[in-house]
Every structure is written in C-alpha cells, then in structure tokens.
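**Sequence, structure tokens**
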Amino acid sequence: MSTLHTVNKSPFATNALASCLNHAKDGDTILLIEDGVYGAATGTTLADTVTAKVGALSICVLSGDISARGIDQKRLIKGVTSVDYTGFVKLAASHDRSQAWL
C-alpha cells in the first residue's frame, strides 16, 4: 500500500515538508504543489534532505506551480519529476490513499 503525500506550504514558512519527509515510507510519493514547490529547488535548506530521499520516495512537483513561481526546471533537485495536472490525477488514482500536509 502506497500513499500520495501532498505538500502545499513553503518549507520557509512551515515544517510541513520536513515532517512529511520524516513520516513517508519507502515507495510513497510526495507531490509538491502551490508554494510547496520551493522545497524541490536546489540551494534550499532542505535540498540535502530531499536529495537523500529521492529513490526511496518518488518526489514530484506540479509543473504549473513551478512555472507560476518562476522556478526553472533546471533548478529542480536531481531526481525530482515534474507532472502536469493530468499526472496529478494519475498519481491520485494510482495510490491507495492520500495525505495532505498543511
């Protein structure tokens, strides 16, 4: 059983992403949406932690949200996947449950 975790808060404003990374189990997927996409950019305080989890977890960002925030795909942490809205729906449908981190 796998879980889709969604994080919509900036890692600079809350500890939602850090908590999610600590609780997600191998095989789970984390989807960063809205201001949560800042957590997938290189050079942030959580970049090393996110990088260490890539592989055990599938970490994705919503492409429309990174574009809206001016984050270039080249600035994403290696191994983070960009998905569109159709991809978001596919992720939700392919996981047994979902957990929103607020």
Observations:
- The beta strands are 3-7, 29-32, 58-62, 81-83, 97-101.
- The mean pLDDT is 96.
- The helical segments are 16-23, 47-53, 63-68, 85-94.
